[in-house]
Amino acid sequence: MTLAPETTDLKIQLQLEEGWLTVCDLTRLVPGRGVAALLPDGRQAALFRDRSGELYAVDNRDPFGGAAVLSRGLTGSHQGRPYVASPLLKQRFDLASGQCLDDESVRVATYAVRTTAYETRAA
Question: Cα–Cα distance between 64 and 55 in angstroms, integer?
């Protein structure tokens, strides 16, 4: 999903088994930097926004080191595929598919991401 410049209060939502979960404001996502979000079951998701406005969410846990650090990783692209490189051992994970670009046998979970306008309710 590509986004227009922010003109409204947009929220980021992740699709979980139970439905869509609002996790943060779109303004929290700075292109090239990640944000961690705590999910209801205790897991964490790492959210990213690339320079074109595309949104991605992957599991925040690095499967090689076991720590929840992918949101702190460096982003880039390889052969047109956006990735995050773990700050631990530098393995790269495709942000769209979760596939490890350095070890085909490893993958992290991905989440569908969308934006929604913030709704206020009258009292």
Answer: 24
CB within 8 Å of 17: residues ≥ 6 apart: none
pTM of structure = 0.87
Give the neighbor-by-neighbor strand order of the sheet with 92-94. Answer: 74-78, 81-85, 92-94
**What is the reported pLDDT for 8?**
55
| DSSP line for 11-26 | EEEEEETTEEEEEEEG
Token pair in block for residue 119: 């709704």
Tokens of 38: 């705590």
Write b or e for each residue in 92-107: b if 16 or more Cβ atoms lie within 10 A of its Cβ, otherwise e.
bbbbeebbbbeeeeeb
Count helices and strands (H / E) in the chain.
0, 9
Q: Of 109, 96, 111, give the one whose Cα is nearest residue 18.
A: 111
**SS3 assignment, position 28:** helix
Q: What is the per-residue pLDDT across 59-105, written as a single tens digit (0 to 9) for each?
A: 999 999 999 999 999 999 999 899 999 999 999 999 999 999 999 99
